[in-house]
Structure formats: structure tokens, C-alpha cells
């Protein structure tokens, strides 16, 4: 086989290698984008209610990993995604009896989500006091996930002074 490869024109080998690299790059990019999507996360039976509430939220235009993965650098994002992905594969294949009825974020995930909330909502933080709790999820735990997060007050504007009285929360 090595003799056959040596016999092929080097330019043809270079073109084949380049095309293979382009194909591999495109496949990797498409795979990464798909695994960031809500449609991919919905495939797990444990995520069905989270997906449903997410699709009815104001954040439904985002991908799951816009909130759930760090964005400091690509290496950190890929490491975090790989570790979380392997954990999910384990629980959904070998540890199904250990899957809790209600999934709670790990401390690492809570920190990442909080950093991403702050990153996207910087302008809100300068307009409304947000020093009532330790993190965003303390007050906004049902956004964008949670049953009944859109109650009768959701589309009504706040009463005068209400946000200041509650330090930006409800």
C-alpha cells in the first residue's frame, strides 16, 4: 500500500489531503453546532420539560450552550462540553437508575450560567440594583426553565417603584 501511495502524483495527494481536511473541518463545525442546539438536548428524555419551558421563554432564540458553557476561550468551552457530555452519556446509558427526577446544576455550571447572564445583561445591571442575592439564578431560577414561569404578571409592566422595592426581582 505504501508503494502505491508513493507512485501517486504528489499534487493529487495534496489535493486529496486538502479536500479531506476541508470535509473534516466542516463536519466538525456542523457537529459542534448541532450539539449546541436545543433540538440535540431535547433528545434526552430527562430534558423534555426543560426543552418545552425553554422554547416558551424569551431566551428561546439562544442555543443551550449560550448559557450552559463558558465562553472565555475555545479550549475551556470544549473541555467543559466534553466533560458534561461524557457525564450525560454515562447517566443515560449505564446509570439510568441514578438519574434524579429533578436535575440540579452543579456549582461549576451555576458559576458558568451566572457569568453568561451577566455577560448578556450588562446594561440591565447598570439600570437596576442587583445586589439582593449571590447570583442571578437566586431570583431568576425559573427563567428560562421552570413550570409556570410565565404567570399572570409576566406581560404586565411593573408598578411604579416595584423594581426598586424588590431590588430588581419579583
TrEMBL record:
<dbReference type="InterPro" id="IPR005126">
    <property type="entry name" value="NapC/NirT_cyt_c_N"/>
</dbReference>
<protein>
    <submittedName>
        <fullName>Nitrate/TMAO reductase membrane-bound tetraheme cytochrome c subunit-like protein</fullName>
    </submittedName>
</protein>
<dbReference type="GO" id="GO:0009055">
    <property type="term" value="F:electron transfer activity"/>
</dbReference>
<dbReference type="GO" id="GO:0009061">
    <property type="term" value="P:anaerobic respiration"/>
</dbReference>
<keyword id="KW-0408">Iron</keyword>
<keyword id="KW-0813">Transport</keyword>
<dbReference type="Pfam" id="PF03264">
    <property type="entry name" value="Cytochrom_NNT"/>
</dbReference>
<keyword id="KW-0249">Electron transport</keyword>
<dbReference type="GO" id="GO:0005886">
    <property type="term" value="C:plasma membrane"/>
</dbReference>
<dbReference type="GO" id="GO:0046872">
    <property type="term" value="F:metal ion binding"/>
</dbReference>
<keyword id="KW-0472">Membrane</keyword>
<dbReference type="InterPro" id="IPR036280">
    <property type="entry name" value="Multihaem_cyt_sf"/>
</dbReference>
<feature type="region of interest" description="Disordered">
    <location>
        <begin position="148"/>
        <end position="170"/>
    </location>
</feature>
<keyword id="KW-0479">Metal-binding</keyword>
<dbReference type="InterPro" id="IPR051174">
    <property type="entry name" value="Cytochrome_c-type_ET"/>
</dbReference>
<keyword id="KW-1003">Cell membrane</keyword>
<keyword id="KW-0349">Heme</keyword>
<keyword id="KW-1133">Transmembrane helix</keyword>
<dbReference type="InterPro" id="IPR038266">
    <property type="entry name" value="NapC/NirT_cytc_sf"/>
</dbReference>
<feature type="domain" description="NapC/NirT cytochrome c N-terminal">
    <location>
        <begin position="11"/>
        <end position="145"/>
    </location>
</feature>
<keyword id="KW-0812">Transmembrane</keyword>
<comment type="similarity">
    <text>Belongs to the NapC/NirT/NrfH family.</text>
</comment>
